[in-house]
Write a structure and sequence with these properties.
- By secondary structure, the protein is α+β, with helices and mostly antiparallel strands.
- It contains eight helices and 17 strands.
- It has a nine-stranded antiparallel β-sheet with strand order 5-2-3-4-17-16-15-9-13. It has a four-stranded antiparallel β-sheet with strand order 1-6-7-8. Strands 12-11-10-14 form a four-stranded antiparallel β-sheet.
- β10 and β11 form a beta hairpin.
- α2 packs antiparallel against α3.
- It is elongated.
- The C terminus is likely disordered.
Length: 337
């Protein structure tokens, strides 16, 4: 059976998740979070439809990726029909994958009546001092229903390969239908994080990491070095730039580092601008899990608390520079995979 025949067979029973009024805030917030956090970083995002939910992934120069997963439990109704294929040994390849414009997705969701949401969230990432420290009071919560002000229903559907992603918004008897053009995926592989071979795992408040990253920006650095050790200094972030060098050290105090699992000293260097581009997630997250494997791949997993006790996770992964890499912007091309 050809690929076209596979998708034509599946078109009769398309994927139809439906978001009701009870679930709409959490789902819409998570989708908006994807758009808000990633739109400034990437032009297109990859979407994978699977039996257990929707997976969004975007990448930059093959050395940075942002990943978000929407579990099917977030939807009131979630229907997935796997495309028919005679080869049952390659089930993982059956999941539909396509790319869409993140900015278009964000604009579509704003039809719901979400006014100035980007300005509201951006205000949480604005500095109150010269070093861009995190504002800890006075701003409206991005997670309150009054901020989103949403009513009605949202339905997403995707019929077959090459078809648009359809979004239907219903409110007060008014129905708005939007079709987002889908594109062929340019990449399919994740940046590999060897979870069974972690060299470090540190959990802390995301706002403290946000403050540290902004503090380092004063020297206009091109690189960020992250070091972790079982002995003092336990966890340090350092940078060098035209304006000098800066180092931020964290003690092992459990009130500061909630989790600290570092069996041996590790030192890895990353492109500062890429780490800094995740600062929006740092600004709105409550906690961050900083993981690194033996190859130096870094994972920053942010936990976003939402109204009603729910949480969403945004995971950024970064590839380190090789120790022998020279200086220059082209170095990300030579980073390890």
């Amino acid at each position: 059976m050809s690929l076209n025949e596979v998708w034509e067979a599946a078109a009769g029973s398309p994927f139809h998740p439906v978001v009701s009024k009870e679930r709409q805030f959490l789902v819409a917030f998570t989708l908006l979070l994807i758009g808000f956090v990633l739109t400034g970083l990437f032009g297109l995002t990859q979407v994978q439809i699977a039996p257990n939910g929707l997976r969004f992934m975007a990448e930059e120069s093959q050395v940075m990726q942002g990943l978000v997963f929407l579990e099917k439990s977030l939807f009131t109704s979630y229907t997935y029909t796997k495309p028919v294929d005679e080869n049952e040994d390659e089930e993982e390849s059956h999941f539909p994958i396509f790319q869409i414009s993140l900015s278009s997705l964000l604009e579509t969701l704003q039809i719901f009546g979400i006014n100035d949401i980007k300005d509201r969230w951006a205000s949480r990432d604005q500095p109150y001092g010269a070093n861009g420290a995190f504002p800890r009071g006075g701003s409206a919560s991005a997670f309150e229903n009054r901020v989103l002000g949403m009513t009605g229903m949202c339905r997403l559907s995707y019929a077959a390969e090459g078809d648009p992603l359809c979004i239907v918004l219903e409110e007060a008897g008014v129905t708005t239908s939007c079709e987002l053009t889908t594109f062929e995926p340019e990449f399919r592989e994740d940046i590999p994080l060897q979870r069974e071979k972690l060299a470090q795992k540190i959990i802390m408040r995301a706002s403290w990491l946000h403050d540290a990253i902004n503090e380092l920006s004063s020297t206009s650095p091109s690189r960020l070095t992250i070091a972790a050790s079982p002995v003092a200094p336990f966890f340090t972030l350092s940078s060098n730039g035209p304006m000098g060098s800066t180092t931020v050290e964290f003690s092992k105090d459990p009130q500061l580092l909630e989790t600290f699992q570092v069996p041996k000293r590790t030192v890895n260097t990353y492109k500062y601008s890429l780490i800094k581009s995740a600062s929006r997630a740092m600004a709105i997250a409550s906690k961050v899990s900083i993981r690194g494997d033996e190859q130096g791949v870094l994972s920053l997993q942010f936990m976003i608390e939402v109204e009603g006790g729910g949480v969403s996770f945004v995971d950024f992964r970064f590839v380190p520079y090789l120790p022998e890499d020279g200086e220059g912007d082209e170095e990300e091309e030579d980073a390890t995979e």
